[in-house]
Specification:
Layout lengths: L6 H10 L12 E2 L4 H8 L7 E5 L5 H9 L3 E5 L5 H7 L6 E5 L7 H9 L4 E6 L5 H10 L6 E7 H8 L9 H9 E9 L4 E2 L6 E8 L10 H13 L5 H9 L3 H10 L13 H15 L1
């Protein structure tokens, strides 16, 4: 039986298969024996809920997910890890490893094939460099999932969970709150990884909303407005929107007036309702 909570065992298996960590892929494997069971329990997986795991690494979290879910489909980009996972996960018969790029794979089709329309969640220990792209792809594609539980850099976790309209918020905050209700679960020290990164991490869960919390006439314009507003977050909206949307400043001022938004407001002060109102006015004026 594999002992994935024993760091010497994990190191031994990796060495046996000639595996070396790739900086380009941002590989930091989760090895803390206390973190993985907790993350698996909080992921929403169960005997009736399947899991798609992105980036299983050496399979430490995968093994824990397999204990609580009836089926785990682990998507791993690095083919060098396939023999490693075959060995570390040998005792489980409810895990399927798929060698693919999660940013290119048709996740919706994968879930249809593997879970037959049943309930599912996504769980991942994401490399820092690809945190936002992966989260946004999963949310934008509106996968048939109840939640997305991810391990991310602590700073990213704070930004993602920040409520729009507060100082800590950013474009990712508004985007995530449009699709889900984010929840900060717990902090994870850098020593919980092999090799240890330079910063601490945190586990967050995005509980998927059935409907957005605000009504927008044009989703594309909503996200474009948010992105433009935060493109120069220290500047007031007339300046950041004019630059980000390539519009005359006077026209932007007129739009802000119509939306009843103060001209001295900055992106971090904007609530979801204000962003929705602003984007609706913009889509009407620019159509």
């Amino acid at each position: 039986m594999s002992n994935l909570t024993d760091i010497s065992y994990v190191k031994g298996v990796l060495s046996k298969h000639g595996f070396t960590f790739s900086k380009a892929l941002g590989q930091n494997f989760l090895i803390n024996p206390g973190v993985c069971p907790r993350m698996a329990q909080l992921s929403g997986a169960s005997s009736s809920v399947g899991v798609v795991e992105i980036g299983p690494g050496a399979g430490v979290l995968t093994s824990e997910l397999a204990k609580v879910s009836y089926k785990v489909v682990a998507v791993e980009l690095d083919k060098r890890l396939l023999p490693v996972l075959k060995e570390t996960l040998a005792e489980h018969d409810n895990i399927k490893v798929v060698n693919a790029d999660a940013m290119k794979l048709d996740l919706k089709q994968l879930m249809a094939d593997e879970f037959n329309g049943g309930e599912a969640v996504v769980c991942a220990n994401l490399p820092y460099y690809i945190t936002s792209p992966v989260i946004m792809r999963i949310l934008e594609e509106r996968l048939p999932i109840d939640s997305l539980t991810v391990m991310v850099q602590k700073e990213a976790a704070d930004r993602i969970c920040a409520v729009p309209g507060t100082r800590e918020s950013g474009a990712i905050s508004a985007a995530v709150h449009y699709y889900s209700k984010p929840e900060f679960l717990f902090k994870v020290s850098k020593g919980s990884f092999l090799p240890p990164p330079k910063v601490d991490s945190a586990v967050i869960r995005l509980n998927i909303l059935k409907n957005p919390p605000v009504q927008v006439n044009n989703e594309k314009m909503f996200f474009k407005t948010v992105k433009a507003a935060f493109s120069q977050r220290r500047k007031t909206l007339p300046n950041s929107l004019s630059s980000g949307l390539s519009l005359p400043k006077q026209q932007v001022i007129g739009v802000l007036d119509t939306a009843a938004i103060p001209l001295n407001a900055r992106a971090e002060e904007m609530t979801m309702e204000q962003f929705a109102c602003l984007s609706n006015v913009l889509s009407e004026k620019l159509s």
